[in-house]
Amino acid sequence: MQIYLPIAELPISILMVLGLSGAVGFISGLFGVGGGFLLTPLLIFLDIPPAVAVATVAAQVAGSSTTGVLTYWRRRALDFKLGGVLVAGGILGTVLGVLFFNLMRRLGQLELVITLSYVTLFTIIGGLMLYDALRAMWRVRAGRPARLRRRAGTHPWWMGLPLRMRFYRSQLYASVIPIALLAVVIGFIGAVLGVGGGFILVPALIYFFRIPTAVVVGTSLFQILVTMTGATILHALTNQSVDLILAVLLLLGGVIGAQFGGRAARNLNVDSFRLLLALLILSVGLRFAIELFIAPTEPFSVIVTEGIR
């Protein structure tokens, strides 16, 4: 059973899209990540144009984050003050990212930029996570704590920069400069690659700012919701690349899959959890790296530039 995607301009199997989004939703519920970093490349592998894949997944990520934000808000595990700083930086990064996205699209280099970005980002993030997971497992087997605890009263230098602010819900007193810069980077990456950025933002807030995990997840989802909504609107207005039919199918499958993933996560060992996530990220980066060395099926393409008839 197929359906025609008007923006992507190609027919696609409904069951395939639902199955794909359901599998990604399962992984999202299992690992507690947005899933956009997997969904975007998988859509590209299915021959969805990169511009449509990025913009449409941004809409799907925004929709799927809504329920999470409401859940953490009811639990009082969402720091709106910290979220405001993250949103401010995220919006600036999103605007810059969409401008860069449109520039690369006009120059005909968008697909290359997306591929290289995924290879670089996923190799670095996946490699660091794999190293951290293996080191923790080795320390546990040796009978030592999984991580060395920082001594009480010590703080990294970036928390002492100017413009310090107190975030009571997050139990944090630190400069807003590194927090805002982190949000700008996340917003830029999200707009260019169609990812929520939670797989970067969550560990960064935990390891670099020592914010409680429960508050980090809810606040991260709040930032993702606002920035991905903004990215969706900007993509729709500037390059008309958001395919609503595809977005609805992705959202439907993702919500169903996330329910099963959340249940399976209860039985997953923490060390195994982190190791599997690292291997998953590395495998996606490797898949994109292979694409760089495979000869295209059609070595020539025609690019129509605005103003040329």
Automatic annotation (TrEMBL):
Localization per record: Cell membrane; Membrane
Pfam family, one: TauE
First-listed, main subcellular location of the protein, grouped into a coarse class: membrane
Transmembrane domains' residue ranges: 12-39, 51-73, 85-104, 110-131, 172-202, 214-237, 244-261, 273-294
Cellular component terms (Gene Ontology): plasma membrane
Keyword Translocase: no
Membrane topology: Multi-pass membrane protein
Keyword set, alphabetical order: Cell membrane, Membrane, Transmembrane, Transmembrane helix
Family, per entry: Belongs to the 4-toluene sulfonate uptake permease (TSUP) (TC 2.A.102) family.
UniProt protein name: Probable membrane transporter protein
Classification of source organism: Bacteria, Pseudomonadati, Pseudomonadota, Alphaproteobacteria, Hyphomicrobiales
